[in-house]
Amino acid sequence: MLASLSSENVAPAPVMRFSAEQCCLSIAQFYLAYAGKTALHDLTLDLPRHHVTAFIGPSGCGKSTLLRAINRLHDLNESVTHSGHIQLEGQDIHAPDMNVTELRRRVGMVFQTPNPFPMSIYENVAFGLRLQQRLPKRKRDDIIEWALTSAALWDEVKDQLHRSAWQLSGGQQQRLVIARTLAIKPDVLLLDEPASALDPISTLKIEELIRNLKSQLTLVLVTHNMQQAARVSDYTAFLQQGELVEYGPTDQVFTNPRLQRTENYITGRIT
Amino acid sequence: MDITSDTHSQHISRQFNQELEELKTHLMAMGGLVEKQVQDAVFALLEGDSHLAEKVRDNDRQVNDLQLQIDDECTRVLARRQPAASDLRLVLAVIRATSDLERIGDEASKIARNAMLLSESNGNVRGLIEVRHISEHVRKMLRDALTAFARFDTELAMQVVREDELVDDEYGSAMRSLMTFMMEDSRSISSVLSIMWVLRALERVGDHADNLAEYVVYLVKGLDIRHSDPDTIDPQVLKKS
């Protein structure tokens, strides 16, 4: 508390850095443009390992674009150009020797609308595993049980693993998708509005899951729901028009943001 | 990030602006009432006006009702709006402030009760000079704390925080003179004890005014300076921007 009484803490444009040991993802001077139109402008931020970082900001501010960039989902879009670096555990994700398939195994992604494959619950979770390696059935079953348990879905589906995934409710489908991602043991989980299409109870289950997964991996959450960012994240980054406005501990951002622009956004003021 | 007194009127939701404005207005109304209560209680004591003292005792109910009403409004805002940042700090500061104002109301009521007792006692009451002096001091603190709240003025708030130390010193020295009075004349013990209770109540009013001033700093700067020595706080941090 006493430390926060010094005048340094009110300095504008704070840049929060983490040491190499704490840092899982490190983004440095990252620019990205769609057909020459800048979407991300000079972003520099470190995301700490085993924590939840939330990206918040108005529509079109670039938060989903940034999330996709971490997974190199823009690779197939020829109109996208970028510069700067994104490092995963010290390794540049755009380095020529980076295997994109391996990158996407290490960095899982969950989207706004649950997208289970048109197959059984079991096969959904086994899908990535089968692509990755041949495993004895017993071993595979263990991993599937572990993934479904980690995704807080096992108890609800253990007796119906061979039913179609599409028969699950929206919230269950979303947890199934998370289980599918967890099965291939990623280091990072990117969540793009994972609960925005879900009812309040399913939303709370997903939030609880995010909290519990922290001990296993690093999570990055994009959300429009500020209360959700405040509830589940440890750090919050506020983006506006492709720029990082403020990045800090969630508690601080939501009780005493340093910049007027952040304050205006999170309190719903006219800017 | 600093806020100003019109920060809370710029939301996209006009209804929310209005709710926060009402919180502030009602808190100021409660502050005004409590200020008047302290003023009347001290006047009743100094002038031996037991009717006025009785009125102060009756009016305490209004203060209590206002506390309930404002707390209720704060609960509604928290439940319905889930305020963040400066909005959240405003609601928290208002909840805390109503509790201190209500306690000041109780202290005014105690002063009024002693005023009624003293008005019945015959003879010369000692210690009224001390009461007059300290009451002027704490009433100014209370007025300044409320003004600082209304204007979001952290510099004025810090003045109040510093004043509280002076009041504590004055209270200590008044207590020593009153003890001398009691030793000199044992017949005065009962009335001097009443005066001591009054001074104690006034000193507590000063403490509550100090708390109000601390909430202003929290509200405007997001700094919780409760339990901190005012001399250790960097004056630059508290400067108005």
UniProtKB/TrEMBL annotation, chain A:
| Keyword presence, Chaperone | no
* Swiss-Prot/TrEMBL GO biological process terms: phosphate ion transmembrane transport
Carries keyword Repressor? Answer: no
- Alphabetical list of CDD domains matching this protein: ABC_PstB_phosphate_transporter (cd03260)
Q: Which gene encodes it?
A: pstB
Question: What cellular component GO annotations does this protein have?
Answer: membrane
> By its UniProt entry, which PROSITE patterns does this protein fall under?
ABC_TRANSPORTER_1 (PS00211), ABC_TRANSPORTER_2 (PS50893)
Domain ABC transporter positions? 25-266
Q: Name one Pfam family in it.
A: ABC_tran
Query: What keywords appear on the UniProt entry?
Result: ATP-binding, Cell inner membrane, Cell membrane, Hydrolase, Membrane, Nucleotide-binding, Phosphate transport, Translocase, Transport
Name the enzyme group at the top EC level: hydrolase
Q: Name the EC number(s).
A: 3.6.3.27
For this chain, one GO molecular function annotation is:
ATP hydrolysis activity
Query: Under what name is this protein listed?
Result: Phosphate ABC transporter ATP-binding protein
Per the record, the domain of life is: Bacteria
Identify the InterPro entries for this entry: AAA+_ATPase (IPR003593), ABC_transporter-like_ATP-bd (IPR003439), ABC_transporter-like_CS (IPR017871), P-loop_NTPase (IPR027417), PstB-like (IPR005670)
TrEMBL record, chain B:
Q: Which GO BP terms sit in this record?
A: intracellular phosphate ion homeostasis; negative regulation of phosphate metabolic process; phosphate ion transport
Family note: Belongs to the PhoU family.
SUPFAM superfamilies under this entry? PhoU-like (SSF109755)
Point out the coiled-coil segments of this chain.
none
Q: Which UniProt keywords apply?
A: Cytoplasm, Phosphate transport, Transport
| Keyword hit for Transcription regulation | no
**Keyword Electron transport attributed:** no
What is the protein name for this chain?
Answer: Phosphate-specific transport system accessory protein PhoU
Q: How does it assemble?
A: Homodimer.
**Localisation:** Cytoplasm
Species name for this entry? Vreelandella andesensis
Top-level taxon of the source organism? Bacteria
Where is each PhoU domain found? 28-114, 131-216
One GO cellular component, as annotated: cytoplasm
